[in-house]
């Protein structure tokens, strides 16, 4: 999958959403790494020996590295070789990267590291099966995700991954769209109580749909919410499954 200029992460120092993006991407990585008892504390530097990156790729792909790597990379050259093994793996998986090499990751180039993680999110989380649909094949992963959400909540005018989510009501609508009766009263929610709305919807999604809160309610309703972070969270609804015992309250017609 080729990443276009539209997908390159902007990390200018003045961007108010910079920390939101870093935190969200870190949580997304850790949601996958937890199954192998590993965790990233600092996304900028924790990938520099290649071990956590390799572990993440093996979890995401359910495959092992094609080449051997250093289990104890005590020297810089070993770190570079490990990261090279990871990047070579991505290339063989047809996941194309833009302007990133092993040295950038070892040196802690945050902008490029976030670009790398976003590429992984696009490929493993946002992308959807196209089932031979010619129109879908012409769409970007972003457009397909948006279309899926619009089909889930046709009564809500969703057109973007920023402003539409800032009063929390769309989150309630999506939760109820995935599991009718889980948030049946979302239409009556006060849009001025955006943080309460977001917390309620996201907690229900976490508890009963298995959708982890890789972004916080405060971050998703932020006036300068990071679009990529919101997409990362919403893409997790694609695999949402209703758990037994969910407190469904079907509305009376």
Overview of the molecule:
By secondary structure, this protein is an all-alpha fold. It is built from 11 helices and no strands. The protein has 2 domains: 16-126, Orthogonal Bundle (Actin-binding Protein, T-fimbrin, domain 1); 134-239, Calponin-like domain (Actin-binding Protein, T-fimbrin, domain 1, Orthogonal Bundle), CATH 1.10.418.10. The longest helix is centred in the N-terminal third of the chain and has 17 residues, at 76-92. It is elongated, with a radius of gyration of 19 Å. The model is unreliable at 1-8 (pLDDT under 50).
Number of helices: 11
Distance between the termini: 46 Å
Question: Architecture of the largest domain in CATH?
Answer: Orthogonal Bundle
Global mean pLDDT: 90
Q: List unreliable stretches of 5+ residues.
A: 1-8
CATH fold label of the largest domain: Actin-binding Protein, T-fimbrin, domain 1
The assigned structural class equals mainly alpha
What is the helix/strand order? Answer: HHHHHHHHHHH
Strand proportion: under 5%
Main sheet, how many strands, which sense, barrel?
Answer: none
The beta-strand count equals 0
Compact description:
This protein is mostly helical and 253 residues long. Helix content is 48%, strand content 0%. It has helices at residues 18-33, 51-61, 76-92, 102-106, 110-126, 134-138, 141-152, 169-178, 194-209, 217-220, 227-235.
Set down the secondary structure blueprint:
Layout: H1 18-33, H2 51-61, H3 76-92, H4 102-106, H5 110-126, H6 134-138, H7 141-152, H8 169-178, H9 194-209, H10 217-220, H11 227-235
